[in-house]
Design a protein that fits this description.
Helix content: 25-40%
Distance between the termini: 33 Å
Radius of gyration: 21 Å
């Protein structure tokens, strides 16, 4: 995977919050709280790079990409894609921008309509935009048919299978169908929500290599969600470490794995197995105490305070800002004030 190049930001997320209301009552419902799934995060994604987002289950990774795609309407903040603030964009402008923002979902079976053939699934984005008059007039049904066959071959599927249904394919093949659908409108950015976590290890490597090749061929930009640190290290140019809806550390992939700074990042990396028994026996494992706190509670100090082995009194009442340690490395921790 190519490393960071100096290109313009394609996506800018600023102070993004996604709170889901907790309501009480059957008839006269009233809000009694909120699940703070994403609680004020900011980052940029440059053209042609891959930003990996990693963290424990429930930390807000999937909610982040769904909020970027506007599948969830953000509570506050801005999502600026190619110069357009998607949060406040008019409907037509939003629809036009969505051509360039596509998603690959975690479950390759649940994300495909079992009543539709592969041909219909891949062609659906093109048919929708063609019907709305948002594609060039030269995009006819024959052109769409050829595009479907071309996409199937590009992702490693036999075009002769286009009239088959999702249940006739393996998990890896179904994920290839999802990738082909995401490519149909020639997007600029793909939001990949744990696209390999439901697949066997051998199939995972095939899908990762496919995504890598497509990025080189088509100049794609990825936001890649995963909880597997090895997958994130392989696919990502930069990595954001999330915990309880906040970004704890943001760095180039190579720097993060060689020199993690945040106590949470260190704990995550220490838990990842290393395929070398000598190194594995010598390295120190960091065991975090307690469970992940509830995201329903508003917090006034460091979000990692309850489980941090290095916590100070200041951490309890003050939220640490993201501090830039060097040109490519930022961390939110009072240890580095």
């Amino acid at each position: 995977m190519s490393k960071t190049t100096e290109k313009r930001p394609l996506l800018e997320v600023k102070d993004l919050k996604q709170h889901f209301p907790i309501e009480s009552g059957f008839i006269m419902k009233r809000q009694i709280g909120a699940v703070r799934a994403v609680d004020g995060i900011s980052f940029t994604v440059n053209e042609g790079e891959t930003l990996g987002i990693v963290g424990e289950s429930g930390c807000g990774k999937s909610t982040t990409v769904r909020s970027i795609a506007q599948l969830y309407k953000p509570t506050s903040g801005s999502v600026i894609f190619d110069g357009i603030d998607l949060v406040n964009a008019p409907r037509e402008q939003m629809l036009d921008a969505r051509k360039n923002i596509q998603m690959i979902f975690q479950d390759p079976y649940a994300s495909l309509d079992p009543r539709m053939t592969v041909r219909t699934i891949i062609a659906e984005p093109l048919e929708i935009y063609r019907t709305r008059g948002m594609l060039d007039a030269s995009v006819t049904r024959d052109v769409i048919e050829k595009r479907v066959e071309e996409l199937m071959e590009r992702v490693g599927l036999n075009r002769a299978f286009k009239n088959r249904y999702p249940h006739e394919f393996s998990g890896g093949q179904r994920q290839r169908i999802g990738i082909a659908r995401a490519l149909a409108l020639n997007p600029k950015i793909i939001l990949a929500d744990e696209p390999v976590s439901a697949l066997d290890v051998s199939i995972q490597s095939q899908i990762l290599n496919l995504l890598h090749d497509l990025q080189k061929e088509l100049g794609l930009t990825y936001v890649f969600i995963a909880h597997d640190l090895a997958v994130i290290e392989y696919i990502s140019t930069r990595v954001a470490v999330m915990y309880l809806g906040k970004i704890m550390e943001l760095s180039r992939s190579s720097d993060l794995y060689k020199n993690p700074l945040h106590p949470y990042t260190k704990a995550l990396l220490s838990a990842a197995p290393i395929p070398d028994p000598v190194i594995e026996r010598k390295r120190q494992r960091i065991i975090l105490t307690g469970d992940v706190p509830s995201p329903n509670k508003e917090r006034f100090g460091c979000y990692f305070y309850d489980r941090c082995p290095y916590k100070m009194e200041k951490c309890k009442t003050n939220i640490p800002p993201m501090k830039r340690m060097d040109e490519h490395h930022e961390v939110a921790c009072w240890l580095y004030e």
